[in-house]
Specification:
- The complex is a heterodimer.
- Chain A is an all-alpha fold.
- Chain A has a single domain, classed as Ribonucleotide Reductase, subunit A, CATH 1.10.620.
- Chain A has 13 helices and no strands.
- The two termini of chain B are 18 Å apart.
- By secondary structure, chain B is of the alpha/beta class.
- Chain B has 13 helices and seven strands.
- Classes of the chains: A mainly alpha, B alpha/beta.
- At the A-B interface, helix 11 and helix 12 of A face helix 11, helix 12 and helix 13 of B.
- The complex binds fe (ii) ion (2 copies).
Chain lengths: 348, 233
């Protein structure tokens, strides 16, 4: 039973009126979908049949897209359990107890997302990129992620969350939350899952679609948490509290740092492969721009400089447009194979 | 002279300003050379069925009212005798002490969308040039409540700017569409990139080309913003 916005119970040490308590409670209730049960109920058959019927370039599009997700989910799951959990104890934040409670929910769901994608890619796609024996958090990102700027965003997230966990400084926390909750969850993940929802009928993946409905709902709560956290820090800054000065600038600058590499993600599963599934890079860019405007300007009340955003995306786009994505990928795949100690000539 | 928006004259002035704008010329160097650089501006939701002639700006309608007020009784009689059925009916339902008052009331209460049926050739003689021209343009160009403008943009120049009578038969690289109110905000100085990002305006076309020329897009918006404009509605 959902508690609505406010709990009807009150506790002694747990503030049941805190918005993080509400988020925790929603996570307890709505985040309970069971990955293995989903596998049992929906099965892999249709997804496998669709996969088998696709052209190689179409498969590559889906592989790149889901590889981006798989790597990203592992990264966010790892950072949540370690860095974010520690950040929630920071003295500069309110409602530490409820935030720590909520973070366990976030961590649990991120591990479920990883669980789903990891098993799904192995069971359905049974193809390259499923090198799950190498941990992306130990310098072994999935080749397509390493070959593009998407890896930069995930690295940035790891560095910023680790720093904030260590300093517990409001500015560092603002930067970490911006990369994690706004850029990775709020933009990359939403743009990616909207691409999945636009698959043409021949790419019929009921299991994938079903799971992504759950994943998107989970991500919605994570993003709410991130936005509320940033709002809290901004309120302190706007109230003139010295320790929080610079929060707004930190948030906006973190966007400018990440946004060119975020464009890589859209490019790698669309135009880099001539987009036979018609996932439409234009649509990806427009959706990304709209999410930036909605979260940064409308919800947080910031003043993002769009010329700056577009200029950095342009510079990056002109660069990646020259790439031969397959060639770059092959380089990273070879490196990956060497790391695994498997012969580079394809012995499996 | 007054630049009414939307009108052919406004668009011609906009073309002239774009071509004289050094910042636009420089920032759109190469634009449309390897892709179709033309634009269609789609102005949706013009309040043609809601707005009456009397609700148009005074600057346009005051001379019309004066002409009818000052006309001789005989002239008013001629106008009434030659009135088309649509006007007859409106006069019959209009308030006013004298036939002249009722004629004026009927005309000024006529919605723009209904003006062509009501304004007889006889009455046209009394219309001030500006008003006659604008009513003609709206009759000619409005497709339901939408007007389409076409701009041929290539390599720093606007080669052509026209209002489209038959938008179906035109193709453009980009279509920028929005409600009329949003166009007013743009011309009043709103940021075009922000308007597109927030989906207040919708942009159809190859966005990657726009991304390469953001300064040109901004200058297109700013040039409109600097044009002294009087809005019809
Ligand atoms: Fe996730
Ligand atoms: Fe998440």
């Amino acid at each position: 039973m959902t508690q609505g916005l406010q709990s009807q119970y009150s506790g002694q040490r747990v503030n049941t009126q805190s918005r993080w308590y509400t988020l925790f409670q929603k996570g307890v209730e709505l985040g309970t979908w069971n990955v293995e049960k989903l596998f049992d109920e929906i099965g892999f058959e249709q997804d496998r049949a669709s996969w088998a019927a696709l052209e190689p370039a179409e498969r590559d599009q889906i592989r790149y897209l889901l590889s981006g997700f798989l790597d990203g989910e592992r990264e966010v799951a790892g950072d949540a359990a370690t860095n974010l959990q520690r950040i929630m104890q920071s003295p500069c934040l309110e409602s530490n107890t409820e935030k720590e409670m909520y973070m366990t929910m976030l961590t649990l769901t991120e591990h479920k997302h990883t669980q789903f994608l990891d098993v799904y890619m192995e069971e359905v796609m049974n193809d390259a990129d499923n090198y799950t024996d190498l941990d992306p958090r130990r310098g072994s990102r999935i080749p397509i992620v390493q070959a593009t700027g998407l890896g930069e965003v995930f690295e940035h997230q790891g560095l910023l969350t680790a720093k904030a966990a260590s300093t517990r400084d409001p500015i560092d926390i603002a930067k970490a939350a911006t990369t994690y909750h706004m850029n990775v969850e709020g933009i990359l993940a939403r743009v990616g899952s909207s691409a999945i929802s636009r698959f043409p009928p021949r790419a019929d993946f009921p299991l994938l679609n079903y799971a992504f409905k759950f994943i998107s709902t989970d991500e919605g709560r994570h993003i709410t948490h991130g936005i509320e956290l940033l709002k809290e820090l901004l309120e302190h800054e706007r109230a003139g509290e010295p320790q929080y000065q610079g929060v707004e600038r930190a948030i906006v600058n973190t966007l400018y740092q990440d946004v060119p590499y975020m464009a890589d993600f859209g490019y790698m599963f669309t135009d880099a492969l001539d987009d036979p599934l018609e996932l439409d890079f234009n649509e990806v860019l427009m959706r990304g721009g709209n999410l930036i405007d909605g979260m940064y300007n409308e919800t947080l009340g910031l003043d993002v400089d769009y010329m700056e955003v577009i200029s950095v995306v342009r510079d990056r786009y002109l660069e990646i447009n020259e790439w031969d994505i397959k060639e770059r990928l092959a380089e990273h795949e070879q490196q990956y194979q060497r790391k695994r100690g498997v012969a580079a000539d394809g012995g499996n | 002279m007054t630049r009414w928006f939307p009108s052919e004259e406004w668009l011609a002035a906009y073309q002239e300003r774009l071509n004289a704008n050094e910042d636009y010329i420089e920032s759109s160097d190469g634009w449309g050379e390897e892709f179709l650089g033309s634009f269609i501006f789609e102005i949706n939701g013009l309040p043609l069925s809601e707005t009456t002639i009397g609700e148009l700006p005074d600057e346009l309608t005051a001379p019309f009212r004066t002409a009818l007020t000052d006309a001789s009784d005989a002239r008013i009689t001629t106008l009434r005798e030659n009135a088309p059925p649509a006007l007859d009916q409106r006069v019959a339902e209009a308030d006013g002490e004298t036939p002249r008052d009722r004629l004026i009331a009927a005309l000024f209460d006529t919605e723009i969308a209904n003006a062509p049926a009501v304004v007889s050739p006889e009455l046209r003689v009394e219309l001030p040039d500006d008003l006659e021209n604008l009513l003609d343009q709206l009759d000619k160009y409005a497709q339901n409540d939408t007007v389409y403008a076409y701009l041929d943009l290539e390599d720093g120049r606007c080669n052509e700017a026209t209002v489209l009578e038959d938008p179906e038969s035109s193709t453009a690289g980009f279509v920028l569409s929005a409600q009329y109110q949003q166009w007013i905000e743009l011309i009043d100085g709103a940021d075009v990139i922000e308007a597109v990002m927030s989906r207040d305006m919708s942009l159809d076309g190859d966005i990657t080309n726009i991304i390469i020329y953001p300064e040109a897009a901004q200058e297109m918006g700013d040039t409109a913003g600097r044009l002294e404009t009087t809005f019809l509605f």
